[in-house]
Each structure stands twice: as C-alpha cells, then as structure tokens.
Amino acid sequence: MPQIAQIAETYSSQIFWLLLTFGFVFFVIGLGMVPKVQGTADARDVKISGDLDAAKAAFARADQAEADYRTRDAESRAAAQAVLAKAKTEAAKDSERKLAAADAEVANLISTAEARIQAASHAAMEQIETVAADAARDMVARISGVDASEDAARNAVKAALAHG
What we know:
2% of the residues are buried. α1 crosses α2 (150-163). The termini are far apart. With 164 residues, this protein is mostly helical. It is rod-shaped and about 190 Å long. The protein has helices at 2-143, 150-163.
C-alpha cells in the first residue's frame, strides 16, 4: 500500500501543519475569544449577585413595610375600639338619662291618675252614700211609714258599708 509507505515522507510536514493549526486556533480562541467569554460570564455573575442583593434588600424593606403596616393597623384598631367604647358609654348614659326622665314622667302620670281615681272613688262613694241614704229613707218611709232624717239614714248607710 503506497499510502503507508508515504507516511514517513509526509510525517514531518503533517506534524508542522498540525502544530501550526493548533497554535493558530489556540491563539485565536484561547487568547481572543476566551477572555471575552470569561468577561461576559464574570459580568453575568456580578449582575446576578447585585440582583440577589437588591432582592434581599427589597425583601427586607417589604418586611419592614409590612411590620409598619401591622403596627399602624393595630393602632388604628385600638383607636377605633376606644372611640366605639366611648360612643357606647355615652349612648348608655344618654339612654339612662332618657329612661330616668321617662320613668319620672310615668311616675308623675301614675300618681296624678291615682289621685284622680281616688278623688273619683271618694266622689262615687259619697254619691253612693247619698243614693243609698235616699233609698233607705224611701224604703223606711214605704215600709214603716216613718219619715227618717237624712243624718240617721247616712249614719245607717255608713255603718252598713263599713261592715260589709
């Protein structure tokens, strides 16, 4: 085979071009492109690191803002509860005052009504006594034919009403 016989003649030339090609590739890629890729990777790492730090700072600010919000919310709730309690107390006092005034008015109306009822009762009793005395005088006059005095008839009616 003639190709195998030529290896020794072309061997040194192939090694020269192989070394030259690998050297050229090494200098172009290794010294030209690798630093640019490495710089890009380093810039990306710096950017990611900065973004992570910014995210951590934003997260800390968000936690602080939430804590501040919760504090303000708790204070607002406490203030609202205080206002509500004060309003309830004032409403209860106002209600008690109105109820006391209404009770006094009702008590006054009841006492006035009781006085009128008692006066009407006394007037009715007097009328009953008068009517009963007149009826007793008429009965005595019809039954016995004796004309009884008005005072005697009243005293007899009062005695009968007191017993019965």
